[in-house]
Write a structure and sequence with these properties.
- The complex is a heterodimer.
- Chain A contains eight helices and two strands; from the N terminus they run H-H-H-E-H-H-H-H-H-E.
- By secondary structure, chain A is mainly alpha-helical.
- Chain A has a two-stranded antiparallel sheet.
- Chain A is globular.
- Chain B is an alpha+beta fold.
- The chains are: A mainly alpha, B alpha+beta.
- At the A-B interface, helix 3 and helix 7 of A face strand 5, helix 7, strand 13, helix 8 and helix 9 of B.
């Protein structure tokens, strides 16, 4: 009622323009950057440090530490990995950690084994830290995680037996899959799943 | 004499209760019911009475004659229960479903580690948003609820929801999809509050459970319609659905809908988490078909193992959905795909939600095959399996496996005796 009165006798074009202008302002990031509700608190740096376990393929979030396959082999027994994954990652009830197939077989034809098929060694490191061992997830130290990662990579002939893994060289490990994997496409809103796919 | 005294006592009790206020009054009535109503049929009342138990009063139960239940689902060849005795996937009984809402108790479940469920105290739980934002933010569940909320109908479907000739019922072929009404705060509301930086391209959504399950999601999706949900079908989320907080990523594979959500990190690149490792495919094309659910529909009545009593009128009924938007049309064929008939909607189709469709059919009693197919409002349509094989230029075989998510048409065979079986068998 009030609105209609406001716009009475005016150029109808303007009537349309004003709401449009408002809508475009709301959608613009420039205006959306100030806190509106003021609810919640700022997490401390210490809290974020403890919580932030995400590791990107480039690995700059990796904590300092070192590990070798030799230490990893001991930890594999001490931490009980062997109970579920079997000796040297074979024959257990949990997923196998070593391929039974020869070096000449294409990685896509081999079993889906994390330390073999992952395009980045960082994913192996990340999953051991966040997801293992069963019932004691998140308790391994960075050195222990580097060592277990080294052990699994050696089992799958990815790195030499004596390589010392650390924050710097872990992201540079050349995984067997190389560049032979599908890259994520750019997601577009309200667009079909795959351009040119008729369904 | 005794019974007279007893009913007098009940009356007194009831009177006292009424005087004591509404809550007490309810309890008093229930006790009175327990003592006075017969449990065997009387001439005036053909049915026995359900006891007014504490459970029936506080959190009502369905009739004992309703026995529809979920089932452990042996998906992707993974035995369920598995070698550790854990059930990884639980499927919804779609064959018994009516309308579009899946009761929370019957919503499908997929987990990282079987039946391990974190028993989270919502008073202790927080959600933190950080990374490429101007102001990192930590919210308790109560604080999250103070933000403006939205309530939306959305389906969730597991990427492993595939149909093949070995399955018997629609619960086995399609039971890893469910639809609920979700209530929560749009992620865009929270990201504006934090001051999203222009360099943010992806975000990592991480759960608080033992393995801290995490997924990478494009920021365009996050700003469009992702929802930080705390409510499901009018009450808090169930633990199996991520209590106290989960993220809804409408139309994306189920695994993206991170449960027990504790953290959202805004990042400038694709983070390959263990979940993304699971999505790895040799080709980008197949990968692209494995994120957003394609347009899909299935007839739930009549469906596998059901029995038609004889020739005559039937309302063929089913569900349709799409991860790309709202369902636009559904067609039903009752002659094996020769003629397609427009089905009617039983509710208004909504974006990334199940819609109930129906088609009125007079069965003449002869052997036939019934199918459904749909289109969505971004121009996608549900294909036949053969069409998919042709597009990929591979020979079509009986056990053809659809690349990416399987949204192909599902046939049900109806025999002369009215028995319904899997048309792919």
């Amino acid at each position: 009622m009030g609105l209609r009165k406001m716009f009475e006798g005016r150029n109808p074009l303007k009537v349309v323009t004003i709401p449009l202008l408002l809508a475009s302002l709301v959608g613009s990031p420039a205006i959306a950057q100030s806190p509106t509700y003021g609810v919640g608190r700022t997490p401390t740096a210490e809290e974020l440090g403890r919580m932030d376990i995400a590791i990107s393929p480039t690995g700059e979030e990796l904590p300092p530490g070192t590990g070798t396959a030799k230490e990893g082999a001991q930890l594999y027994l001490q931490k009980g990995c062997i109970a579920c994954h079997g000796a040297e990652g074979l024959g257990g009830l949990a997923p196998a950690l070593q391929s039974k197939q020869g070096a000449d077989v294409n990685v896509w034809k081999k079993e889906r084994i994390l330390p073999l098929r992952s395009p980045y060694a960082t994913v192996v490191w990340d999953f051991i830290r966040r997801g293992m061992p069963l019932g004691l997830e998140g308790t391994l130290t960075p050195d222990e995680v580097y060592s277990l990662t080294a052990y699994l990579l050696v089992l799958n002939h990815v790195i030499p037996e004596d390589q010392v893994l650390d924050k710097e060289n872990l992201p540079t490990v050349k995984m067997p899959i190389g560049d032979e994997f599908g890259k994520p496409h750019e997601f577009k809103l309200n667009a079909p799943r795959l351009k040119g796919y008729p369904y | 004499m005794d019974s007279k005294r007893s009913s007098r006592r009940e009356l007194l009790k009831l009177g006292a209760a009424l005087a004591g206020g509404a809550t007490v009054a309810l309890r008093g009535t229930a006790q009175a019911q327990e003592h006075t109503h017969p449990t065997t049929p009387s001439p005036e009342n053909g049915s026995p009475m359900i006891h007014g138990s504490k459970e029936q009063i506080e959190y009502g139960q369905r009739s004992k004659y309703v026995t529809s239940v979920r089932m452990a689902h042996p998906m992707g060849g993974r035995a369920s229960p598995d070698v550790f005795g854990k059930v990884f996937h639980v499927a919804t009984p779609l064959q018994d479903s009516v309308g579009v809402i899946t009761p929370s108790s019957l919503h499908y479940v997929a987990t990282t580690r079987g039946s391990y469920l974190p028993d989270i105290d919502p008073k202790q739980h927080t959600l933190t948003l950080h990374g490429l934002v101007d102001r990192p933010l930590t919210l308790t569940v109560d604080e999250l609820k103070r933000f403006p909320s939205v309530t939306r109908l959305h389906f969730i479907e597991c990427a492993g929801n595939r149909h093949d000739g070995t399955q018997k019922t629609v619960q086995e072929t399609h039971g890893m999809t469910s639809c609920s009404e979700w209530t929560g705060v749009l992620l865009s509301t929270l990201l504006r509050e934090c001051g999203l930086k222009g360099t943010a391209k992806w975000f990592v959504a991480e759960g608080a459970e033992e393995v801290k399950g995490a997924s990478s999601i494009p920021i365009a999706k996050g700003m469009d319609d992702c929802l930080i949900a705390y409510g499901q079908n009018g009450e808090p989320l169930r633990p199996q659905q991520g209590f106290p907080v989960r993220i809804m990523v409408p139309g994306f594979e189920g695994i993206y809908h991170t449960k027990f959500l504790r953290r959202i990190k805004l990042v400038d690149r694709y983070y390959m988490n263990y979940n993304e490792f699971g999505h790895l495919r040799p080709e980008g094309k197949e990968l692209a078909l494995g994120e957003q659910i394609g347009p899909k529909s299935v007839i739930t009545y009549p469906s596998g193992t059901q029995q038609l009593p004889g020739a005559g009128f039937y309302e063929i009924s089913g569900l349709a959905w799409s991860g790309g938007g709202a369902v636009k049309t559904v067609e039903v064929s009752t002659d094996g795909g020769k003629k397609w008939n427009r089905a009617q909607f039983k509710n208004v189709p909504q974006r990334m939600a199940h819609v109930r469709f129906a088609y009125e059919w007079r069965w003449d009693g002869s052997e036939t095959e019934i199918l459904s197919r749909c289109t969505d409002d971004i121009g996608q349509r549900q294909p036949m399996r053969e069409e998919i094989a042709n597009w990929w230029k591979v020979p079509f075989e009986r056990n053809y496996r659809v690349p990416g998510l399987d949204n192909s048409v599902m046939p049900w065979k109806i025999a002369r005796d009215g028995s319904v079986t899997n048309g792919l068998a």
